[in-house]
Protein: A-factor biosynthesis protein AfsA
Organism: Amycolatopsis eburnea
Amino acid sequence: MTSPVPLNDAQTRAREGHTRRDVVVVADRFARFARGDRVITVSGLLALLASGDPGDGPEADGCHWVVHLGQGVDATDHDVLEAAREKSGVAVTFADPDAFRRLPERSVLVHKDRPENVLLAGVHSPSAGHCRAELRIHRDNELVLDHHTGEHVQGIVIVEAMRQICIAQFETAIRPGLATAAYAGVWKRIDLSFQDFLFPLPATVESLIEESDLARETNLKFRATTAVRQQERTVATAVIEYSMIAQGRIDTLERRKADQATRAYLG
């Protein structure tokens, strides 16, 4: 998670006599992570705000809560929470309201059809061949809808985030200079290792292209090192070898192999 954001003078005066406490709000999907007094779900925060009872909320111990954005929370949640906060008058402030409104990347940039399945936001390239983005997990992402886990985010989300950062790197840094209209990613090899758990807090995803072969424009080859990091901890790393193949070429290849597979099965 990023460092707590300093409050402005008006907010400081409004909470005079209170002690600042930084907390994180996460989607109800991550309720198992929301334990103790530092992490709370959207529903949990709404309940505290709706009750208007300082004995159950931040004012119980003389605190003014500064709420930070966790995973699965979006602008719609913020609007509901903000309305409840204003109505209740409870000592709660959002550390960075704009963070709730930062949208995930366009679906086409990571080759997904549904926006809730996009795992990246703020894709940018700090240097040639290096792409970086925020991890952004929607509460209705296909990979978290029906998966039993503990407090951490399951590993398959990490794998998909790594796939998406490679696609986004291609689409933003390489694709604009090519004449062919569309490409599809074909993964050849993934050498993946997990170093730590990923939790539903802010995290980053990055890709560094180590080698590339751009000789054939219809079949571009890459080897990239990818990583997911959270609070300066490396959660997972992977070396990925993949090709970006022109859509027409991959359609023809896939159709031929599909026919071969059908004949082999049916005889």
In short: The domain at 107-253 is CATH 3.10.129.10 (Thiol Ester Dehydrase; Chain A). The chain is about 30% helix and 30% strand.
